[in-house]
Every structure is written in C-alpha cells, then in structure tokens.
C-alpha cells in the first residue's frame, strides 16, 4: 500500500461519525425538574479550582448552553451535519438526586427519553456515558465518594435503572468518563471530598478498586438487560515519549504509562496486572477485596474508548522536569511540538500511535470519543450575511488528526468511530470558561454570563458535514 500524497483515505463502512458533550457542561437547569446537586455545581473554577459549599452565580456550568431546553434545535443541527452518533452523558443526580434513594426521579428519566427519541428520529445513535464527572454531591459529602464501598451499590441501582428504561433506545454505553483522571482530580472524577493533598494512596486506590468493580458490574448488567448493546470503558489517553534515548528515561516512561494502562488492563483483561501489584507492595497499599470482586472484574468491556488531545514527554532527570500543561495530566513539554492557546501540545501522530498501542495491547475495537481544539473564536458576519466563525485553525487540527486515524485504519486497527469533543460550544471542564470553544456550532454566551444563547454555524460545521458525507475522503493529507 502506498502512502503517497494521492492515496485515498479509507474509513470502514459504517464508521460512526459524530460529536460529544457532557450533561454538566451543556444542559444547565442544574436545580430544576427534580435534579439534585452534583460535584460540578460547587466547582465554579473547573477541575483544579476550589469547591464551594453551594452553587454560586459565577459557575458557568449551572446554565451551560441551556441544552436542556434547546436540545431539539441542537440535535437538528447535528443531523444537518450528518451525525451517525451523538455522545452525551446522563446526569446521575437527575435520576437519583442524592444518589442513595430507592426510587428514581421520573422527570429526569423522561428528559433523556425525549432526548434519545429526538436523536433516533434523525437516525443518530446515542452513545451514553453513565458517569461523566458529576457524582451526586450528597454521595461526595456523606460518603467521601468512591472511597466508600457503598457507592458500588448506588451506582449499580442507577445503571440498572437507566439500562431498563432505555434498553430499546441506547445501544452504546460507557461506564465512567476518563476513569484514570481520578489520579489527578479525585473530587471531580471520583467525588472524593477529602482534599487531594490529604488523600492517602491507600484511600485513592481503594476508591479506584470500587470504581473498577462498579464498572465491571455495569458491563454485566448491560449484557443481561440489553444483549444487543455494546458497553465500553473510557480512558484519558496521553501517550508519553522519552525526552532522550537514555534507558533511564525509557523506564521512566514505562512507569508513567503503567499508571494509565492499569485502568484499561483491568477493564479489558479482567484482572490486576503484575506491575500494579508491585506498585502496591512498594507503596504499602493493600486493596481490600470482598468475596466476588475478582469474579466480577472478569466481566470485560466490549470496546475501549478514549479521549486524545495531547502527548507528553517523561524523563528521569529531575532537573529537566519543567512544568508542562495538559488535559489534567501535566508532563515535560516536547521540544518538537507547538502548543495551543491553553498550552496543550498539538501532536496528530500521537493519535495514530495511541490507537496502535491500545489495539496491540487489547485486540478490542477502539472508539475515539473525544478530540478537538479549544480556542478563542471570533464571531463575524460572513459574505452571505450569516454570522459565523472562520475557524480554519480548528479545521486544520481536526483534519490532521483524522488523517492519522485513517493511517491507523491502514495499520489494521479496528476503529468504531470518532466523536469530536464539544461539537457545540460547551463550558470547559478544566477551566469552566466558555471562551475556550471546541464546537462546530458557536453559542452566543460568554464568561460574564451575557449573550443571547443563539446558535451559529462555524466554517468547520460545513467542513465536518463534508467529511461525514464522504466518509473521510474529503480530508487532505
């Protein structure tokens, strides 16, 4: 096979093109229709910022982009682009407001019925994340989140409730969003109320164990309740390169990658890997397993999904470990790469690399469920008199990454689909800003809360529509 400039880019038939959002970054209506507070409602500054006792007006996520009330308008725009799949999440605290109730909130269940019906009307398959950074706040404060084993039962009740409710509407599910992000953001990712600097490794990895058991339980429940569905895990992928060829740097990379591979290894292979057992021994960590846990973990996922935004470097030389920025996980900057406005290094080839690494390791289908460029967009009036954004920088970013996806397909990697992050502008998880925009659709809302909430098609909207129409053949090497 030639890799010349004229080679046609081939994506498999039935490739699931689409986009992704999360309930907490888009829906708004944070305290309406029976919804309880989530951890997001008290984190007005994003992932690493301080938390408050109660929701405050400066939290952009409380209103989001009002997707709750405008979803019909937005789904119609997704259909206009030709989406085959739409990834969103269910807000756990819409279904169980406190998280530990016996009975669900019917208003919350009905909202997602209506949303999924709207998607299916246009032939768009919902891809639904059960827990996307929005643990019910009550479970966080009362139980210390996933540190407490009781959360397994609460999560199982929630998962079973939504599986039974939507079994005829949703055929693609994810258990936890970026599950490995708990290592860096224990409150947002794991609902752990204990401050990060006071959280012991023992409690952190015990919480991770509880999540892994709960995830495997959700896989088992999904297979029993919706036999024709597929359910996957979701991992924050961040390929790590050695800063130099020094073997010390290569071993430093191996240890760093193990921290993230661990989550995929348990989900895909059904047991704890030897390198983690060594890590536990050397760090005095003793995972408290109950009878049945090891058997439950054998319920492995049908596919591996992941986010990809950035790669990093690692070194054993402490003097070279300057601060780099990334999506939760910071690392040593790569001297060969440029960075976005937010300091995230841009590495399209890293996506091909991680696709190959995951597929070689697991031999399971892969799904790229987040990728995109956060940037400051300027709304202008186009030549046709319509308001738009000339976001050629976003088109270039996505084109270059999708070309690498096509290369991975040529490599023999089995890839189910691609849902670009923030297909319509949403509030950023990392910074809680709206000026950091990812979408093909511009939402007229700003960080000071002003704006009309009107939606406008960016230049990238028309570009992506053509990519989907041609199944990737319009991409440029």
UniProtKB/TrEMBL annotation:
The keyword Hydrolase applies. The active site is at residue 370. One of its GO terms (molecular function) is beta-glucosidase activity. GO terms for cellular component: cytosol. Keywords: Glycosidase, Hydrolase. Coiled coil: none annotated. GO terms for biological process: carbohydrate catabolic process. It comes from the Bacteria. PANTHER family: 6-PHOSPHO-BETA-GLUCOSIDASE ASCB-RELATED, GLYCOSYL HYDROLASE. Belongs to the glycosyl hydrolase 1 family. This is Amygdalase. It comes from Paenibacillus bovis.
């Amino acid at each position: 096979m030639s890799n010349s400039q004229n080679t046609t880019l081939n994506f498999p038939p039935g490739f699931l093109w689409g986009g992704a959002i999360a309930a907490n970054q888009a829906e708004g209506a944070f305290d309406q229709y029976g919804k309880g507070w989530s951890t997001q409602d008290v984190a007005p500054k994003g992932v690493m910022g301080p938390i408050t006792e109660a929701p405050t007006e400066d939290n952009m996520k409380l209103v989001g982009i009002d997707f709750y009330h405008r979803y019909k308008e937005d789904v119609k725009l997704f259909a206009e682009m030709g989406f085959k799949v739409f990834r969103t999440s269910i807000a756990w605290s819409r279904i169980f407001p406190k998280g530990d109730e016996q009975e669900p909130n019917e208003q919350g269940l009905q909202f997602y019925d209506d949303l999924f019906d709207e998607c299916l009307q246009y032939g768009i398959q919902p891809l639904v994340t059960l827990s996307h950074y929005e643990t019910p706040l009550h479970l966080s404060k009362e139980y210390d989140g996933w540190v407490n084993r009781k959360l397994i039962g609460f999560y199982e009740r929630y998962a079973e409730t939504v599986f039974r409710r939507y079994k005829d509407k949703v055929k693609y599910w994810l258990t936890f969003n970026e599950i490995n992000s708990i290592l860096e953001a224990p409150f947002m990712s794991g609902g752990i109320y204990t401050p990060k600097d006071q959280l012991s490794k023992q409690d952190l990895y015990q919480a991770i164990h509880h999540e892994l058991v709960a995830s495997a339980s959700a896989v088992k429940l999904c297979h029993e309740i919706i036999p024709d569905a597929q359910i996957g895990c979701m991992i924050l992928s961040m390929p790590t390169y050695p800063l130099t060829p020094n073997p010390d740097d290569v071993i430093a990379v191996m240890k760093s990658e193990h921290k993230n591979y661990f989550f995929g290894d348990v989900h895909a292979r059904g047991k704890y890997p030897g390198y983690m057992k060594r890590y536990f021994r050397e760090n005095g960590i003793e995972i408290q397993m109950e009878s049945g846990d090891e058997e439950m973990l054998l319920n492995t996922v049908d596919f591996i999904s992941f986010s990809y935004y950035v790669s990093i470097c690692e070194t054993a030389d402490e003097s070279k470990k300057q601060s780099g920025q990334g999506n939760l996980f910071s690392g040593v900057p790569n001297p060969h790469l440029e960075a976005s406005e937010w300091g995230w290094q841009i590495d399209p080839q890293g996506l091909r690399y991680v696709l190959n690494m995951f597929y070689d390791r697991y031999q399971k289908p892969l799904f790229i469920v987040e990728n995109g460029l956060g940037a400051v967009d300027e709304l202008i009036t186009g030549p046709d008199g319509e308001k738009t954004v000339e976001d050629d920088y976003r088109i270039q970013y996505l084109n270059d990454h999708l070309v690498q996806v096509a290369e991975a397909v040529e490599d023999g990697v089995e890839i189910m689909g691609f849902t670009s992050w923030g297909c319509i502008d949403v509030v950023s998880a990392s910074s809680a800003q709206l000026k950091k925009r990812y979408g093909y659709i511009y939402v007229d809302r700003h960080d000071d809360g002003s704006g009309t909430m009107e939606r406008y098609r960016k230049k990238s909207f028309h570009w992506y529509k053509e990519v989907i129409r041609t199944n990737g053949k319009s991409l440029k090497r």
